[in-house]
Each structure stands twice: as structure tokens, then as C-alpha cells.
Predict the structure.
Amino acid sequence: MVITIGDIIMYSASFISLYIIVLLFLALWGGKNNIAKPKSPKNYSKVCIIVPCFNEEKTIAKTVHSLLNLDYPQDKLEIIIVDDGSTDRTYERAKNLLKYPQVKLFRKENGGKWTALNYGLEKTKAEFVGCLDSDSFVSPQALKLIMSHFVDSKIMVVTPSIKVYHPKNILERVQRIEYLSGIFLRKSLTFLDSLTVTPGPFSIYRKKVLEDVGFFRNGHHTEDMEMAMRLQSQNYRIANAPEAYVYTVSPTSFKALYLQRQRWYGGFVKNAWDYRYMFMNTKYKDLGLFVLPMSILTIIIFIIATFYSLFIFIQATINQFIAWQAIGFDLTQTTFNLNWFFINTSALLFIGLFILIFGIIAVSYGQKMSNDRQSLVKDFIFYTFIYGPLLLIWWLGIIQRTLSNKKYKW
Amino acid sequence: MPTKRQPFHTQKYIVAFLISMAIFIFGFLVSDYFNNRRFSEINQVKQKFQVQVLALETQLVSFKDILCADINEDILTHELHLIGEKLQFMENDLGKNHPEVKHLKQYYTLLQIRHYQSSQRLSERCNLDLVHILYFYADRRTCPDCQKQGEVLSYLRKKYPLLRIYSFDYQLDLPALAIVRPRNLTAPEDDYLPILVIENQPFYGFKTIEEIEKILSDKFGAESLTKIR
């Protein structure tokens, strides 16, 4: 049998995908068995949630109300809204929320989310601080569940699960599956001490750790990734509470989603470059020796494999089109053979089936953890067919932007 | 305060590797099982077909006045075509250089030649109005138009059931192919391919449906197309 470059690409890509997903399952399984369940604290500490907002007049009230509805002692909760120079009616809407004693409102010149967060950090004396993007809403139990992890004094940050708020169109449904698989991914990576993002929506920090490592930085427009990398680089422990979930309003249009991913993935690449000394560094154990190098390798392999698959698909489609053109598209004489003989039974197909099954289990885990009861079937089908090409478009955009040195937009 | 990291999970990486390898091997074994079943299915059809061709040849040689009505040439043609389709699938899946595929292809080519010769004789003896086309193709690199030509011929084969089309890989290493292959080609083969041989006359390069129908009508008369329909 002749082995082509195409075979090498596809089999390498499937082996690496399979290996990573098996490892993540082992990490989750081993971690769950070895780590004791978090206990509720005897006394709840004071927590300050900073809500940075820029032109969020539509969602700011709902975001703050979700915080006011938290099942947490209200005298221990402080909400600081920082209007980052909005040009719409965000400030006026936020002013209406000052009737609640927990809420404080500040206004500053626009400087980016990280500056608004730092502004809020300067204004609080709470022992724990967190952030909630003004397009996100928390579930009532989220804070209590997160705080129970801080009983362990070694834990410096706890991240929640993030769910898409009311997914309606195809893009939102694809993101729903992506976020659910993210819940699995984040939990597995926690057991490898390898979380590289402390997501904007509702990651809670001990304020002391922020004072030690320094407040937020621009971090190439991804201050949450930069902060996580900084904490990891100094060996601070980040935990994850998958059952504490936060809803986020996801981009609904292709363009908005594209721009968001340009910022996220571009930020990942640039932050990875800034912290490149962690790669293959034995000091950082699983994170340095496996997770970081593998995340870059996966991206490279993914781009090559998807490019190759698309190339083959487009080439076959064009050839078939030309062939059908030769018969004037008269397909009445064409018969499609349904005999089992003509069904693809390549090894790649069976390996792909295993990856798909693992993927379904991972998404179901995310669904169970985040108490999501909607059916997954339709969204999973959309995800299977749409996510790969979307990811390719996003990454090609990153490469193009990096080569042309373009700045990322919000 | 910074904490000591968990030790590197060496055992997990090894177990993950072993599980992944096991799944990979399983994938290849299952695929191999299905391929073996396919080969055995082709071999069964091949053997059945071989018997039928031999029977037809024996009838043609032995009897002066054969009973034309008793001979199911069309069933034989259909079975030959079925073997061809299956072989084509295996070739696409495993590559033309796979030893079993190569062997089957040589065998299939020989069967086609024998069927072609018998069918020609039968057509004469029984006045069957069969029209025979030999089609020489090559891989996409050598013959970019061959997929198009194949589609055109499949279309015509279904449109005209009395059309007998035999496809030969021009590059196949099989001396017997010389019996049917056009001779005296001097330029590189990709200048000629695809080649159609209609009643012993070669036609070079891609031919459309209309062109082939015109050739047939010129050669056998305008009414021939209605007859073979």
C-alpha cells in the first residue's frame, strides 16, 4: 500500500486528536477520584464583583440583577459597576441600580476592559474579587459553589462554567456545543494544573494574589488569558467549579463572532509568545511539557488537516461538477448504489467514530455539570459540520493579521 | 502563596498512548476485515462469472446453430460491469498498487477481453445489434479528461442498453492488453488519452455525448441508435 502525504496528515491529525481526548478523560477520571469534594465555608467572606461596561445599556440591568439574586449573604456582596466611557445610556441605566445598597457606580474615560477592572480593584477592600462582563448573567448558586473551593488555602482563583444564553440561530447553537465541551476541557485541565484562561465572566480571585502578581494588563486584548498565564508562571493554583455556571450572550452574526475569535485566538498566540519560556520547561510539569506545546501543535495540525480535507473535498466536487456538466446535468440515468460494499470502511472512519463518541461524552459531561436540559442532537449536528470550517477561517484570519501586523478590534 | 505543582503525570501519558494505539489498531483491524470481505465477494462473483464466460465460449465454439434465445449475454454484461464497479471502489480505497487490487485488475481486464471477443461473435451469429466500445483511460495526472469521459460513457451505457463498453487502464502492466490496445502511437500517451475504439477504429481525446452518438450514427446508420436503445 502506498502511503501518501495526505494519509500522513490525516492519520497524524486523528492520532493526536485521539491521544489528547483520551488523556483529558484520564485526567478527569483520575482527578475526580483523587481530589476531595469542596466543602461549604463556615463563614462567608466579603466578595466584590466588578462589572466593567462599555455601551451595554441593554444588558447592564439584567447582569446586575443576576448578581443581586445570588444565593449569598447580601452584606458580604459588593457590586462595583465601572462605566468605561460608554457613549450610550449605560451610565443612566446603571444609576437606577444605585437604590441597592450593594451597588456602587463609577465612571471613567474609555481605556479598555482591563483598565476598568483595575479601577474597580482600587475601590474595593473585599478579600475576594471577581469580574462579571456586562453581557453575562450568573446562576443563583454560582458564588456559593465557587467560594466553597477557597476553603483550600492553596487555591487562588476559581473559574466557573460558561453557557451560551438562549442560543437561537445556528452560530449560537454551534457555540453552545463549543462552550459545553469547554466545561469538560476546563475541568480536565484543572487536574493537570494547566488552566490557561481565567474567563472574564465570573472568575473569582483572592485579592491578595492580584496584589502580589499585579493587577490586570492589556494582555493583547485578552487580559483573562494573560492573568492566567501570569499566575501559572508563578505557580499559583487555579481551580474550576463546573457546577457554578454563568450565562453569556454570544455573538449572533458571523462578523461579530469572527472579530471575537480574532481577539481570543490572537491573544492566545501573543500571550503564549510572551510566556514562551514556559514551553518545554520542566518546572511547569504538565503545563510546560505537554499542554502548552500540544495546544500549539494541535492548531498547526488542525489547520493543515482541515486545509487538506477542504482541498480534497473541493477538488472532488469540481471534478464531479465537470463530469456532470459533460452529461448536461441529466442525472436521470445516474444510479446510487446502496450496497454495503460501497460504504467507506477506512480505518480513519472508525478512528473518527471513536473521537466523535468521546466528543459526545465530553459535551454531555458539560451539559450535566451545567444543568442544561435542552436536547443536544440538532446542535451537535450543526457543530460537527460547521465548527471545523469556522475554526479554519478564524485561524487563517489570525495568520493574515499577524503577518500584516493588524490590530485586533473589540 | 505559590504552591508546588503536581508531579508530571507520566503514567497518564503512557496509558493514554496505549489506549490511543489500541483504538488505532482496532480501527485498522476492522477496516481490514471489511476489505477482506470485499475481496472475497469480488472473488466469488469473479468465479461465477468465469464459469458463465466459459459456458458462453463453449456454446459459441461447439454448436453451429446455437439457440440465441438461450444465451443471457445481457446478464453476463451486467455482472461484468458489477465486478468493474467494485474493483474501481477498491482501487480508489486502497490504491492501484495494492497487490490484491493489481492482481484483480489484471484478471478483470482479461475477463473483459474474453467477454468482448465472445460478445462480438455472438452479436454476429445471433444478429444482436450490439455495439462495442473499448475505452482506454489513465489516472488523473496522465488523463485529466478521463473522469469526464467515464461519466459520459456511463450515461450512454444506461441510455443505450445494447451498447457494450469495456474500460481498460492504459497503463496496466498486462501483455494481453496489446490484443485490444491501439497500435502505432508515437506521441506521449497523455496526448491521446482518453481513447475510444469503436468497431476497431480509434478516436483520440475527450468525446462528448453528441460526438459519440454522431460516430455511432455515421458508422452504423442513423437507425442504429434507435435499435440499441
